[in-house]
Amino acid sequence: MKSLAELQAIKEKMQGKVALREGSGEKRVVVGMATCGIAAGARPVLNAFVEQVNAKGLTPTVTVTQTGCIGICQYEPVVEVFEAGKDKVTYVKMTADKVARVVEEHLEGGKPVAEYMLKA
Amino acid sequence: MKELSLNILDITENSVKAGATLTHIELVETADTLTVTITDDGCGMTEETVRRVTDPFYTTRTTRPVGLGLPLLRMAAEQTGGSVTVESRHRDAHPDNHGTRVTAVFHHRHIDCPPLGDVVSTVITLIQGHPDTDFRFTHTRPTGDPVELDTRQLRQVLEDVPLDSFEVLQWIKGFLDEQYETAAQ
Asked: What is the pTM of this model?
């Protein structure tokens, strides 16, 4: 059974890392989680980002956050990626399956996945 | 919404947006009914607002004049022969005791009752998105021990380690999954 003692151990391991987490976030992944996003399937998309960003050890530079309605409900689930000094990238009609490529090619490799982006 | 856990996620987001410091998501199942109660200590709503919240053409959002969260919950409940009630105390009228309670009753044997779905994922998503507010989650079923989680308790252990750390989220998922597995035995 998972115990609070186990959580205590996690705390001790994590405490050293806390300083590293703060003030970082060179890339910010924002998932729209209003009614429109949730109904369209944003929850598994968000969880896939959280898991894969961590699995690849990108947490020092990538943060995953949630926001409300972005205003383009027909394209939900919508994910925006912000990076200092660069234009915002908007991914539309995301699925958990599409997350792997965004994590690998964009968050890790620095090249946005044009195929998943909002076409003008 | 494909599953009720998504409605629960959506409605609880309103509690967070209302500035709640603690939101309690309570699921109580009997042989015939599932009652979902979401209680928060947020800013509350005026009586006028409460009257209008299940109207799809009433919303506080600014991106468009339609808000479907509570109307969708009401539709999901009513199509099973159940109901949704909203009670609220606005902070102007009740400065020391304000907040909102949304109660939805579902007849889960009704053919039109959506599955409850992945509530663990809903809880994890809420904590990941709002690591500085507290959530209490309880799920009582006709048999087995209730499933429980209270982030205030975790916070005491974690001190300055944030609740949205990946390791902590994973622990919470395991903690809830294990309680469901034990209860199912």
From this structure: 0.92
User: Which residues of B, range 35-94, sit inside 8 Å of A by Cβ?
Assistant: 61, 63-64, 67-69, 72
Check A4 against B67: CB less than 8 A apart: no
Q: Phi, psi at residue B114, to the nearest 5°?
A: -65, 155
ipTM associated with this complex: 0.89
**Which chain A positions have a beta carbon within 8 Å of B60's beta carbon?**
none
The total number of residues shown for chain A amounts to: 120
Q: Do B72 and A8 touch (CB under 8 A)?
A: no
Q: Which two tokens stand for residue B143?
A: 């048999």
Residue of B nearest to A42 (CA): B6
Kindly provide the residue ranges of all beta strands, DSSP E only, lying in B41-163, ordered along the sequence: 83-89, 99-107, 134-140, 147-150
- For B150-176, the pLDDT digits (tens) are 999 999 999 989 999 999 999 999 999
Rounded Cα gap, residues B151 and B129, in angstroms:
13
**Neighbouring C-beta atoms of residue A14, cutoff 10 Å:** 18
Instruction: Report the C-alpha gap between B159 and A65 in whole angstroms.
Output: 22
pLDDT tens for each residue of B81-133 = 999 999 999 999 999 999 999 999 999 999 999 999 999 999 999 999 999 99
Spatial distance between the Cα atoms of B17 and A68, rounded to a whole number of angstroms: 10
Q: Where are the domains of chain A?
A: 23-116
CB-CB contact of B83 with B77 (8 Å): yes
The fold adopted by the segment(s) B4-184 is Heat Shock Protein 90 (3.30.565)
Domain A23-116 has CATH 1.10.60.30: no
In three-state secondary structure terms, B29 is: strand
Nearest CA-CA distance, residue A112 and chain B, Å: 24
Q: Residues A46, A33: contact at Cβ < 8 Å?
A: yes
